[in-house]
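Consider the following assembly input.
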Amino acid sequence: MTKAPRVPDLRWVRGAVAIAFAIAALTGFLFYRYEVRARSVASLSDAAREELASLTIPARATGKLEQSWVGEGFTTGYLMAPVGPMPCGGETEAILREGDAESRIEQLAALHDARPEDLLVALALGTQLIETGRYPEAERVTTESLERTSDDEQVIAAARSAGSTLDLGDTSVSTVIHLHHALGVARLSQSATEPPWKSLKNVIGSVKTLSRRRLMGTTRGQPAWSRLLIAAPGCTSTAETNGKPALSSYDLFDNLIVAYMRGKYRGYPGIERDREREFGRAPKNYPSALHQLLLAQVERARANEWKDEAQLWALSNVEQVIDWRLPDDARLAVNSVQVIDWWMAPERCPADVCTPELVAGMQPIRDQLIEQVFRRRNVGPDQRVELARAAVRLLATSTLDRKRITEHAAAIKQWLPPKEAGVLQDLLNADAARAALPRWAFLPPAEGEDADTEPPYAQLGARGERWRQAAATDLAAGAAQWAATRPPHEQRHALIAIRQLLGAADAPPELTALESRLSWTDRLRLRLSASRLFWAIISSLLAALLWLVLVWIIAHERERRLLRVSLYNVEYDYLAAGEPQRPRERR
Amino acid sequence: MIRYLCESCNAEREDAVCEKCGRETRVIEGTAALAALPEPEPQRPDPEPVPEPEPPRPEPEPFNTMPEAEPAPSANILGLAEFHALLDRGMEAVIVCGTGKTGKSEIAAGFTRANNVYRGKSMFLTMRATLRTDYVLGATNADEVWYQIIDDKRVFLDPSGEFFSRLSLEYRRRLGLADITENDFAFVRRAVSRMAGIVLVVDLTRAVDDRDVTAWRQQENDLSFVLPALRWLRWEKEARPEAIGVTTNIAQRANALPLLDKPVLVLFSKADQLADYVNVSPLEFAKQRLPILHGALMTHARRFRYDFCHTMIRKPGGDEAVDNPCGVLLPMEWLLHDPFRWLPFKVPTRYLGGGR
């Protein structure tokens, strides 16, 4: 194709249209920025912004989102206390020092066969069998040994009647306790076996005897639900024995709670009396939220033919433990929170039981227990990952100030696989971001601070954008509560700024409640003037209109100029320049 | 059968243009009357009866066309049915107006050629009733409309010059013919309703005297009637009272109707022979030398422009089409491809310097 003749004004027309587009786009952008800024938080007074910046954001939407982070991979069961340490002294100690586990079991079994009435040998053999995972054999050995002796019945009888005397040495009492605990562990470790209610309950009762005697690690007169350390039989110290920590009353409670939560309580003769003893509580002037929850659930169970009774006993034990003192035991704290959560699940806790006040009252208790999990983290290596996962899951559901456990979280993080450790780190970062967000959102950058400072949620990485939206909802909730106290003019201004800040995120109830006081036309005006999309549309329309006007002028100027041009001459000059054949001579 | 006399070759011909020399011929008196007699047409089931032709009259100058009494009904216009079928397909028409031998067909063909050569948009010439000589289209037959496809949406309508001669009031006065009837617009009626633009072709070589300011008055007058007639055809919705003739009706109604909304391009053809004029702006030329036509455009057209063009060169043996037509491509593109067509509230050309 030959290079063609063109209308001479083509270049300037195209350039002019492009410049018109640039002018229109710039005008539209400036208009948009001006209108949005005039309605943003930047337009609020300095005093208002200072007040807003000091708000504490409720962790509602963000909390819900953070809970979804632990939705998968963090599910744990109830943590069972392991079997206690081996006894000290005697023939067993020599055997336990030598060979591998199998040879030790063989030697202990031979000794047990020779002296079946020796409870220390039975305890050593049972403990060794449990540690090697041979639970049925351990259960058989400990059960047979306890059947052959009446020591445990003496201990229990002494525990039940105050002021009675017990003709047994500390070692024998400790042996009975450790044997019952070992039997409990053996039975709990077998899923098909009925939880050893009697064994587990009796062993806790036995602790009272030790308490009365001021054993090492106990205080005279302390109740069984305080943390009493029980020296292994024959040992003089409650410090670690053979690399294992001493058994504590919390371990006994722990396994009892696990058993209750796993099992189904069946009625038996005299259960009514036992119920009265277990669930009966002295009236309190200032009952805790947990106390109220227990009483309400007991009343509910009574009306429902004691449905979920075993779990109710678990709750009762948790309440007893916590009512005395916050347990400084990570395992018991984890299990306690799980029992509380089980009973506060919506299907078991209707609105008339779990009132907002009760739920709010439970939060500090949960938070303290969860903090205790991070602080104590006193579990063996085989339970560390499970405890860490439970701790992360519970942290996500708590309102705990996560700064308080930052140091301890670092230790917990080391127990977790990298992905799950990342979730824990994100939870800590999210809490820090939540605290920093009001200042970042409401106050201009301080002098010397870069205007494009990273937002506080930048450290959340891929989770950041969704978290920002949830945080906007929470931020709007806090700001709406503040706005409710302001004079009408300032309130309206603040509402627009809050709505703009909220963007596409869900509006919190506080904001909608405040807006509902306005007429629908006012609400519509408020929503539109706060909407960035609305101003974007208006700005685009303005830009389009301006561009249209400019193009209209360009088009008419082109037409005016073109009217005077002889296109014949344009083509003629083109032909004359390039073609040898000229149609005619002229000029 | 109409017979023609070529005065150059002094020989009788069957065609309006001499095949030998390419010059115009003259109708031999008496043959036109014979040709006007109705002929049996087996393909057309109900041919309208052709009324008795008026006796032939002497040829009016400068229109070298055959005298005719009554317009041909649309069914008898060669090519019109096919053209209407194109309109039914959604095509739009660019109506090329001008009296006989002004170069209308060559302009349409020249644009097709230039569009191919310069823009790479190929289109072949559609068939016509007859092809006179090699590489020269020659005149469109009387009672024939030729059409040339521009692209898939538009088509040139190139009616025979005789149709426009019939619309010439002066021509009718000379021949003592009755007023125009609505049948006289049959060749263009449907095209007007689906119009993309109008091309008015003025042959400036047909001057009585170049020094006379009224040298082209005849063509100006003819086109000054065509413009309001097209405006009237496009917009008039009211029924015409029978007592009022068509021309009177157009005169009375046209100015009350909206302006022609499609662009009007006035092309001064055969510019290769107009060396004295082409150096001035075509607008200024029209304002000074064609004031009647310019006034008509200001009155009836919203958007218009003037330009010169030539598609052939004159040679001793006769006119010959040039490979690169001049003044056809860009003006036609102005007509067909207005990049700002979509803009609303366009100001008429007369307010953009195209006025008096």
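Chain B has a mean pLDDT of 80. Ask yourself how this observation constrains the way the partners meet.
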